Amino acid sequence: MDKIIKDKVALITGGSRGIGRAIALLFAAAGAKTVVNYNKSDSCAEEIVQKITNNGGQAIAVKADVSNQAAVNSMVSEVTDQYGEIDILVNNAALAVVKGDALSLPIEELFSSTLTGDEMDLPAEKLAAIWSVNVGGVINCTQSAIPSMIQRGAGKIVNISSIAGLGESTLKKTFYGLSKKVVIQYTKRMAIELGTNGININAICPGAIKTDMLTNFAVSTKNYQSILDEYSNNSLLGRVGDPEDIASVALFLASSLSNYMTGEILTVDGGYSLKNH
Ligand SMILES: NC(=O)c1ccc[n+]([C@@H]2O[C@H](COP(=O)([O-])OP(=O)(O)OC[C@H]3O[C@@H](n4cnc5c(N)ncnc54)[C@H](OP(=O)(O)O)[C@@H]3O)[C@@H](O)[C@H]2O)c1
Q1: Which residue has a Cα nearest atom 2 of ligand 1?
Q2: What are the structural domains of the chain?
Q3: How buried is 167 (Cβ within 10 angstroms: 0-12 exposed, 13-18 middle, 19+ buried)?
């Protein structure tokens, strides 16, 4: 692997699992000083750091709930103290549904549980939690990282949105889709605001990717395999995506290979959106 972001300080929110995990591993392999942010999954974050350092890379794990501005500010201070100013920010952390401790259940219990995972069943405060992470978290981290990027006249921000934000949200995921639409609009607006400061800000809209989020999603249909089949059959490439499919595009957007791109929204869904229009 070419070290195309060698010694760049890269903060990946929600780097403990799924897509964020794959981004952290790839960025570290590409030479970055990698910061694995997490909220609840301490052991997963530590495992990634161990894996990276065992391979001769550089990584630290930093706990912070991205929906909490004070926690985000102290995370950014900690990163700066340990590694220096942030060069690359990947706003990846998000929630699709909030179902108490569903994630800690074995998959067979997930399917037999009474949890539905449907937004329609969620009380207002749970919907607010989705909003505060998916939208508030992106804004908090960006606000905290950009002052030093502006000062240095350089920075790369990669926001992970979703095809749900492009109108592909499935039934009972309207609120999630709305939050992801806001991320798209925020990306474009901030590109306008920050372009003359030498900051590139772009977004990726993944399609269905095999992570815990997709497994959780299955709670509402009670059939994980049917979701995989549906997305495979309805994509042009005939398969569901892997986290690495998104990580490689994130690396492109975080590197100098994309220096003349900003405000772009890249769909990475194996052709799902095209086939379904
Ligand atoms: N998987 C898909 O099919 C798909 C499709 C389109 C878009 N996306 C987007 O891709 C991104 C990653 O999704 P994923 O599938 O990898 O999800 P995932 O497997 O559920 O992982 C979510 C990650 O976000 C972190 N997180 C959640 N709340 C947080 C908070 N308050 N503060 C800090 N970190 C928090 C989690 O950390 P802890 O476990 O430590 O709390 C975890 O590392 C999200 O933006 C998602 O909307 C996913």
Answers
A1: 209
A2: 9-275 (3.40.50.720)
A3: exposed
57-61, 176-180, 220-224, 258-262: the lowest-pLDDT one? 220-224
In this model, does residue 116 exceed pLDDT 60? no
The continuous run of DSSP H or E covering 10 comes out as: strand 9-12
d(CA 20, CA 13): 7
Distance 170 CA to ligand 1 centre (A): 18
How far apart, in whole angstroms, are the C-alpha atoms of residue 250 and residue 160?
Answer: 9
The overall average pLDDT reported for the chain is 90
Indicate whether this model's pTM tops 0.90: yes
Q: Which protein residue's CA is at the shortest distance from atom 8 of ligand 1? A: 162
d(CA 76, CA 90): 13
Q: Is 67 in the pocket of ligand 1 (CB under 6 A)?
A: yes
Cβ of 59 closer than 6 Å to ligand 1, yes or no, is no
